[in-house]
Specification:
The complex is a heterodimer. By secondary structure, chain A is α+β, with helices and mostly antiparallel strands. In chain A, 52% of the residues lie in helices and 11% in strands. Chain A has a 4-stranded mixed β-sheet with strand order 2-1-3-4, with helices on one face. Chain B has a 5-stranded mixed β-sheet with strand order 6-5-9-7-8. In chain B, strands 3-2-1-4 form a 4-stranded parallel β-sheet, sandwiched between helices. Chain B folds into 3 domains: 12-223, Rossmann fold; 233-304, Ubiquitin-like (UB roll); 310-393, NADH-ubiquinone oxidoreductase 51kDa subunit, iron-sulphur binding domain (de novo design (two linked rop proteins), Up-down Bundle), CATH 1.20.1440.
Amino acid sequence: MLVGQQQRLQDDIRGLVGRFGRHRNALIPVLQELQKAHATISDFAMQVVADELGIHPAEVYGVTSFYAFLRQRERGRFVFRLCGTISCDLAGKSRVARQLENDLGIRFGETSDDGRFGLEWASCLGMCDQGPALLVNDRVYTRVTPEEVHAIIDECKSTFGAHARQAAQA
Amino acid sequence: MIRVNSKKTPFTFESVEPESGLRAALAMSRADIIGEVGACNLRGRGGAGFPTGTKWNLAAAAKVKAGGTKYIVCNADEGEPGTFKDRVILSEFADMVFEGMTIGARAVGAAVGILYLRSEYVYLRPHLEEVLARRRTNKLLGRDIGGLDGFTFDIHIRMGAGAYVCGEETALIESLEGNRGEPRNRPPFPVDTGFEGQPTVVNNVETFAWVVCILSKSAHWFKSIGTEKSTGYKLFSVSGDCGEPGVYEFPLGITVGELLDKVGGRGAKAVQIGGASGHCVPASEFGRRLAFEDVSTGGSVIVFGPGRDMLEVAQNFMEFFVEESCGQCTPCRAGNAKLLEGVEMLRRGECSTKYLQELLALGGTMQLASKCGLGQSSPNAFVSIVKHFKDEIMGRTLVQ
C-alpha cells in the first residue's frame, strides 16, 4: 500500500472515531462506514481501528470476521446477494441462481476478475412473499426471473459509470 | 422508501389515532402504564412470548448503575426465515413503533432508545431517519416530551451487520457493544444488566406497535381477542405455496386450517410454523392453534404444497443453521453440522434406522444443552419432519 493511501485510510478512521466516539461501542459503525468508503477492511485498517479505540487488533479481527456484511477482502463493487431461504426456493430461486452464475461468469462465493461483481447467498432477505429476492448492495429486487438477471446486471454497469462520473465532477 | 404490496388484511394499526397511545400514557403514572400492558397479557411478538408487562416491571424496578441510563431497544433484526411483518410495520407504521418505544421509556424511566435494524433492511433507514427527525421537530422526542417536565428520550438507529443470531437479545446487546454476536449466559437478564451493564428493555417491533394500540384502546379490548393465554391479534408473514402470500392480521388462537383457507393454501401438505427454528405441522394436525400454548410463532408461516420434498426443506433449514450458528457452544456448532450431514445421507438413501435414531437423540441433546435459543430450537424442523414424514424420507433410491 502506498504511503499516501495509508495516510488517507488513517485520516478516515480518525474521522470516523471522532464521529462515533472513542469507545468499543463505536467499533461496528466505524467498520461499516470504513467499508463503505474503502470497499474492504484490510489488516492495516484493523490495526489502526484497534489503536484508535484502544483495543487489541485481534478483537477487531474477531468482529470483522464474525459478521456476514463486513469483509476483509474485495467482494466486488456490486455484491449480489440472492436469498437462500426456503420460501425463495419454492418460488424458483435455483434457476435465478444458475442464470446469475452464467451472466456474471462467476460462481457463488466468487468475485469477478475486474472487481466489479460479487455473488453470495443471503440468509433471508425478508421478502418471502415475493421471492425470489435479490439484494444488490442496498437495492432490493423481488420476484426475480432468470430472464431479468441480465437487465439487473446492465443496470449496475450503467450506475457504476454514473458513480464514477459523479465522483470525477465532485 | 420501498413500498411493496405485502398487506393482505386491514391492520388494527390503521384505526388507531396517531399519538393517542402516547397521550394516554403521559396522563398516567408509570406503574399504571405497566399495569395496563400487564393486565392485557401482551406477550412478546418476536416469538418467545415473554409477557411484556413483566419485562417492563423488572426494568422499572432495576437500579441504574452510576452515571448511566436505562435503555429501550427495539429489535428489528428480523432474520427468521419466512418472517417479514416487521419490514411492513417499519415501512408503513414507523411512527407507531417509535411511539411505543417512547411509552416504554416513560414506563421504565429510560432516556435512550436504540432501533437495531438488520443490515438487509438498510434501504428502510432513510425513511426511518426522516420519521425520527419529524418526531423531534414535533417534540415527540427530545426534552420534555409532550410537555411533560423532565421526560427526556431520544432514539437512534444502529445497523446490524448480517448475523441471524443477533436477533437473540443478549447477542444483540453484544453487537451494540461492538462485540461478536455471541449470546450471553442468563441470568443476569438484560432488564437488569443489559446494554453497557444498564437495565435494558429489548422488545420486538410489533410488540411496541401493540403497546400503542393497547394504551389507545384499553387493555380490556386487547384481552377480549384471542385465547386466554394468548391474547390479542398477531401479524403473520405467510409465504410459500399459497394463492395470496403476504402479511395478515389474525387473532391468536386461529387454527392452521382456518389460516390456510384465508391465504389460499388449501390442499397443503404441511406448514412450517415459526420459521427455520419452528415446527413443521403436517396436514393431519391442521386443527392445531397458532398460540403460545399450542404452536408458538413469531409470525412465520411457510406453506408446502403437495409436491414438495420435505427432505429438501429440512436440508435448507439445516444449511441455514450451520451458516448462522455463532459457534460459541459445542451442541449447536457441531450438532447442526451433524444433522445436516444426516439429511444429506437421507437424501442419498444411505441412512440406517439406527443412525437416524442417534440423530434424533442428538437433536434432543442440542435442545437441552445449547446456550441460546438458536441451538435449542434449530433441531425442531428436522425432528418434526422426521416424525411426520417417515414414509417419505426412509430408504430413498433416487439420487436427487
